[in-house]
Design brief:
The chain has 181 residues and is mainly β. Helices cover 3% and strands 56% of the residues. It has one domain: Porin (Beta Barrel), CATH 2.40.160. The chain contains one helix and ten strands, in the order E-E-E-E-H-E-E-E-E-E-E. The longest helix is centred in the middle third of the chain and has 6 residues. It is globular.
């Protein structure tokens, strides 16, 4: 059950431009209260992104940058000192992806892709005092290479390999099934 109260409203705005066939440029902004009265103080959550996608012919090129900020996280973190995870005050991520529709028939489409990602889920913590404020983590960089096989309307079988530049123990093979309904 949600503990959200109607007096803690959030706002969202997005703007996309599609003035050239196959090109979309845009951005989005979310801002709201994150604590919903459940923690000491008030936490504000702000997220934004800028993105672009270009689909000329069989190509599908996309980029995205997103950043988030949580204000008031220090009061929450003071109640969590000693736990393994404290709330970050800032996080961000970005990716660039290229895909190519290599083959298509009536109900099947084969599209290999490559994606480069850089993300940091803990760029910064609000200061809660010497010896208590954790050290932020370093950004992760991931290269993903894979293939999508669309089978029918809204169904895809996926396979990819992920290689982490600074955490090779996280390297993996992913197999998946997706559907849109």
């Amino acid at each position: 059950m949600s503990q959200a109260r109607s007096r803690n409203l959030a706002g969202f705005a997005a703007l996309n431009w599609r003035g050239i066939p196959g090109l979309q440029l845009g951005g989005a902004l979310f801002s709201g209260t994150g604590s919903q009265g459940q923690t000491p103080g008030k936490m504000g959550v702000t997220l934004y992104d800028i993105h672009a996608r270009y689909t000329p012919g069989p190509w599908d090129l996309s980029v995205l940058f997103a950043r988030g900020h949580i204000s008031g996280s220090a009061a929450f973190n003071l109640t969590q000192v000693g736990n393994d995870y404290l709330m970050p005050s800032r996080f961000s991520g970005a990716y660039a992806q290229v895909a190519y529709k290599l083959w298509a028939s009536v109900d099947l489409t084969l599209s290999p892709f490559a994606r480069w990602e850089r993300f940091n889920t803990v760029e910064a913590y609000a200061d809660i005092g010497a010896g208590f404020t954790p050290t932020p983590t370093s950004a992760k960089r991931v290269l993903t290479v894979g293939v999508n096989l669309a089978i029918g309307q809204g169904v895809v079988v996926k396979a990819d390999v992920q290689r982490y530049a600074n955490a090779s123990a996280s390297n993996r093979l992913n197999l998946g099934l997706g559907w849109d309904f």
